[in-house]
Amino acid sequence: MIYLNNMSEHFWHIKEVLKCLYNAGLYTKVEKYKFHSKSVEYLGYILSPSGLTMSNNRVKIIQD
After folding, report:
1. CA 27 to CA 14: how far, in whole Å?
2. Residue 41 and residue 34 in contact, taking contact as beta carbons nearer than 8 Å
3. How far apart are CA 4 and CA 10, in angstroms?
4. Where are the alpha helices (DSSP H) in the chain?
5. Which of 16, 35, 47, 57 has its CA 20 to 30 A from that of 4?
6. pLDDT one-digit tens code per residue, 11-53
7. What is the C-alpha separation between 40 and 45, in angstroms, rounded?
8. CA separation for the pair 25, 59 (Å, rounded)
9. Residues of 25-57 as b/e, b for ≥16 C-beta within 10 angstroms?
10. By the 8 A CB rule, do 45 and 57 touch?
C-alpha cells in the first residue's frame, strides 16, 4: 500500500517499488492493483482519509 498526498511523488514511489520488484525477479499482476482509491479494505478494516473503521463483514461476525 502506497499513500502520498502529492500525486507526482506518489507516481514516483509506485515506479520505484515496481522497479525493485522487477530487479528482484518478482512480477505482479496489474488486475490485483487498485489505483487512486479513496478507501481500501485490509484485514477486516477500512482505511480512508477519515480514519480507520471496521468493515461491515467484520462487525457482523462479531455481532453473530
Report:
1. 14
2. no
3. 5
4. 7-23, 56-63
5. 57
6. 899 899 989 999 999 988 888 887 778 888 888 899 888 889 9
7. 8
8. 39
9. eeeeeeeeeeeeeeeeeeeeebbeeeeeeeeee
10. no
Rounded distance between C-alpha atoms, residue 32 and residue 37, angstroms = 13
Contact 39, 47 (CB under 8 A): yes
H or E, element range at 21: helix 7-23
The pLDDT score that the predictor gives to residue 19 is 94
Q: In the sheet where 51-54 sits, what is the strand order?
A: 40-42, 45-48, 51-54
Total-model pTM = 0.57
Which residues on neighbouring strands pair with residue 54, listed in sequence order?
45
Grid coordinates 477486516 are at which residue?
A: 44
